[in-house]
Amino acid sequence: MNRGRMWTVARTDLLQLFQARDFWIPMGALGAIFFLVIPVILLLSITSVGDIAAVQQLSDAVAILPASAQAKIPSVTSGGSEVSDAGRAAYALAVYLLAPVAVVVPLTISTAVGAATIVGERERGTGEFLAHSPADVTEIYVGKLIASIVPGYATALVGFGIYSLIVNLTVGPEVGGWFFPTEQWWLLMLLVVPPFVLLTLSLVLRLSARVKSTAAAQQASGLVTLPLIIVAYSQSTGALLDSPSVTVGIGLAAWALALFSLIVNIRSVTRARLLGVGDEQ
Amino acid sequence: MSDPLPPALVDLRGVHRSFGDVAALTALDLQATEGAITVLLGPNGAGKTTAIRMITGALRPDAGTVRVFGMDPAVDGEAVRLRCGVVSAKPALYDRLSGWDNLRYSAELYGMGRHVDDRIASCATRFGIEGALDQQVGGFSTGMKTRLALTRSILHDPDLLLYDEPTSGLDPESAYAVLDLIRQMSSDGRTVIMCTHLLAEAEGLADRIIVLEDGTSVLAGTHEELARRYWPEAMVRIATEDPAAVEVLRGAPGVLGIGGDGVAEIRLDDPARVPDLVTALAASGARITRVEPHRPTLEDVYFAIRQERRTAPAPGAPPPPPGGGGPRAAEVVS
Q1: What is the pTM for the complete model shown?
Q2: Which of B66, B96, B136 is best to mutate for the A interface (most A CBs within 10 A)?
Q3: Chain B contact for A123 (CB, 8 A cutoff)
Q4: What ipTM was assigned to the predicted interfaces of this complex?
Q5: Contact criterion met (CB < 8 Å) for A8 and B109
Q6: In what order do the strands lie in the sheet with B22-33?
Q7: Burial A210-248 (b: 16+ CB within 10 A, else e)
Q8: Is the predicted pLDDT of residue A147 greater than 60, yes or no?
Q9: Which of A71, A128, B92, B147 has an alpha carbon within 20 to 30 A of B135's alpha carbon?
Q10: Taking a C-beta distance cutoff of 8 angstroms, is the pair B196, B169 a contact?
Q11: What is the four-CA torsion angle of A91, A93, A97, A101, rounded to 10 degrees?
């Protein structure tokens, strides 16, 4: 495989995406809603506004968390003062309950990109250019996979940075200082989320290579992505609630599954499919 | 059948290709010689585009052999495609990218690296679009898109150019310019294979014509060879003030027959006899108003082929040509 050509395909696809305002404005908006707007409203309503009902509901939710997770919620600050109920509720919200947004955002964005990536070449007629080019179909597949993963994962990482800042600024004073990201959030973002994105995209690109239109690709991708989002959501939450070794285990298992899916699907792009004339290996 | 042509740069023999139940190519034979412009001529659905796709290895044949530069594109696809420049029926450009970025993308895929701006600029200048390269391609006119696609096709200095209806959708002036550029590229020593269903376009351009129909090549040769197949004798049209005056030519040396209505159509064994006929007519006192050697156009030839195919008694059985007997200069390939 010629890596130069693979990166060329990836870079050109990304360049096209960022030339399209109709793509990156909704992408930015989605990231902002999940990583900025919702956390700011929820955390400020607890820590600054002192919404009693919200604090009570969160305290009830904290009570049903596993004991190991509850034990990590600080009750005393480093200065020796007691952490308020609002502070403990905000900590639990920030660390445990908002975790799945880190999964939902990259999967949603990357799926939207990936679903259109190959069938889109066919619809625009540019598949003909790629089919006649010296690029190997594997280079095209991997290049497009990278170009589909990068926008979602990059948005998630940037959002994660912003989210960390918000959490530390709003909850940090309540619990005695900046504490976020926790060790398990690092593991979640760097070890658990990427393989779930890769797994999903490897399947979505296969669909994109096989269906006849972008609309059909979006529909079919939804069917694949929704269960994966649910699995990723539950696994991410579990990873955060349990010990770091469990998080690592979940991450490694997800990587193994993702790599298997990649190997199975890497040949799903064929020149005949780029031309839109049917199947051929 | 003997092949009088030099070794073919592109050589397809007995190629079959189906898409489901639809046969796109059926025993296609196609040869293109180095440095020549070969035009694939045929109606929509004749198999021209599929033939181009076979040549680059974008599609593989179900049966038959494909050799390009002596290689099998199904095996040595990358090596073959690196030496081909393709313009497909739709220009296949990325509308959201600028002209520069479209060309850089191609340059990188063809292994030219990222520092190719000088090469891009010189190629774009050749096609007259150097001033538009900064613009997004989505805003280009059809003619500009075609020029950009042509620029992209020669960027990596290919040996073989494959053009699939490159003048489709262009106004006459732009089409003429594109054909002129194709002629120039052939004169640079490149081999060109071009698909078209526009007869006038093929007539002015082709060194060799291959007529395709229903996925197979029905006839191949130069324009003259194809014309001779259907009009084996030379013909001259002569008009006189008194139409009966031409009767004096009956029995004259080299005259094979006189027909026509109003304007005499005189079949000859050799076009060089035309001055003798004119002299004989003038000596007889006839007043000549017009002398026109008849050279069948490609359109004449094409419709003769089509008519022959329609009236063929059985598939594969060569029917008698409409112009009578005589030598078969063109190569009947099916």
Answers
A1: 0.84
A2: B96
A3: no
A4: 0.85
A5: yes
A6: B22-33, B8-19, B63-68
A7: bbeebeebbebbeebbeebbebbbebbbebbbbeeebbe
A8: yes
A9: A128
A10: no
A11: -100
